[in-house]
């Protein structure tokens, strides 16, 4: 069995996560083409991803790692995460795969805004510039005045990204006391429970091929979640974050090959600006943290 260690191992796991997330989104898009709704996507992702998560917990940290000392904080994190994933899956049903994925990567911009508004973090002109550049990229992807994307789909994608940013901000506090196994496990449980409650209203029978897509998507989502979190154990955030944007390339490729949807020039140009904004924000965050944690020179 190959054991991954160090920064190289973290990067390999992050690439695996990006590929798995791309596969999950692509399969969910195929399922949506058969009439599968966003609540169904969330439910089946949780149901078929949970065995993957449990297997990792049992083989790794052990079942005791899912115990929590902060249930109310988990509840808040799950509320944000469930709302965000429902919005992102709804966007997936309304938008081309590549555009839905690209708009989902506006989360770092929203995280900057939320950190400024609620955590009272100092945000310098460099990070504000990155936010502006990112939103210019969003406007280009939306293509106002041209072959515009459905406004409702864009709204769901941006709201979903905003809730994802809220999750990011919340995890800064939750991860200080909670094991990653607990964070991942309880989120999957929340998705399964809320999805089950919504199924009577939004669920229906689908052809076997649709369920095959959902099974594959759920398993890919479980692998992606674990690979992403495990990558952070092996390597610093700044080393692995750039590889997240491979998901956009994966979405473009999947959409082209499996759905016969070639990306437009505006989609590619907007994606480039959003990627640049996200990478610059991550780099400035790393610079800021180094400045804060730098040792004080002797007097």
What would you say this structure looks like, in words?
The protein has 299 residues and is an all-alpha fold. The protein is 78% helix and 0% strand. It has 12 helices and no strands. Helix 1 (6-33) packs antiparallel against helix 9 and helix 2 runs antiparallel to helix 8 (180-202). It is globular and about 50 Å long. It starts with 5 loop residues before the first helix and ends in a 6-residue tail after the last helix. 45% of the residues are buried.
Largest sheet: none
* Rg, Cα atoms, Å: 19 Å
Give the topology string: H per helix, E per strand.
Answer: HHHHHHHHHHHH
Fraction of helical residues? over 70%
Extended strand count: 0
Global shape: globular
What gap, in angstroms, lies between the N and C termini? 52 Å
Q: List unreliable stretches of 5+ residues.
A: 292-299
Give the structural class.
mainly alpha
Q: What proportion strand? A: under 5%
- Provide the residue-averaged pLDDT: 85
Q: Number of helical runs?
A: 12
Secondary structure layout plus pairing:
Layout: H1 6-33, H2 38-59, H3 71-94, H4 97-104, H5 107-118, H6 125-142, H7 151-174, H8 180-202, H9 208-234, H10 237-240, H11 246-258, H12 265-293
Helix pairs in contact: 1-9, 1-11, 2-3, 2-8, 2-9, 3-4, 3-7, 3-8, 4-7, 4-11, 4-12, 5-6, 5-7, 5-12, 6-12
């Amino acid at each position: 069995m190959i054991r991954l260690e160090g920064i190289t191992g973290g990067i390999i796991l992050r690439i695996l996560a990006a590929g798995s997330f791309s596969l999950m989104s692509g399969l969910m898009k195929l399922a949506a083409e058969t009439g599968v709704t966003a609540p169904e996507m969330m439910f089946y992702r949780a149901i078929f991803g949970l065995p993957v998560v449990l297997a990792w917990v049992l083989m790794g940290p052990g079942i005791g790692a899912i115990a929590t000392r902060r249930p109310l904080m988990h509840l808040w994190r799950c509320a944000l995460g469930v709302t965000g994933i429902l919005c992102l899956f709804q966007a997936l049903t309304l938008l081309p795969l590549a555009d839905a994925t690209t708009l989902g990567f506006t989360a770092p911009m929203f995280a900057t805004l939320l950190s400024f508004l609620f955590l009272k973090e100092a945000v310098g002109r460099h990070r504000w510039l990155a936010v502006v550049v990112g939103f210019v990229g969003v406007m280009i992807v939306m293509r106002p005045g041209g072959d515009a994307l459905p406004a409702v789909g864009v709204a769901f994608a941006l709201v979903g990204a905003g809730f994802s940013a809220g999750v990011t901000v919340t995890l800064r506090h939750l991860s200080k006391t909670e094991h990653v196994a607990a964070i991942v496990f309880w989120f999957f449980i929340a998705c399964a429970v809320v999805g089950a409650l919504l199924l009577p209203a939004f669920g229906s029978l689908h052809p076997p091929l649709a369920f095959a897509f959902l099974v594959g998507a759920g398993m890919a989502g479980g692998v992606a979640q674990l690979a992403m979190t495990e990558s952070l154990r092996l390597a610093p955030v700044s080393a692995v974050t750039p590889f997240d944007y491979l998901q956009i390339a994966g979405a473009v490729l999947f959409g082209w090959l499996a759905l016969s949807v070639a990306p437009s020039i505006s989609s590619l140009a907007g994606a480039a600006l959003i990627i640049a904004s996200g990478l610059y924000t991550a780099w400035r965050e790393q610079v800021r943290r180094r400045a804060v944690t730098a040792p004080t020179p002797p007097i």
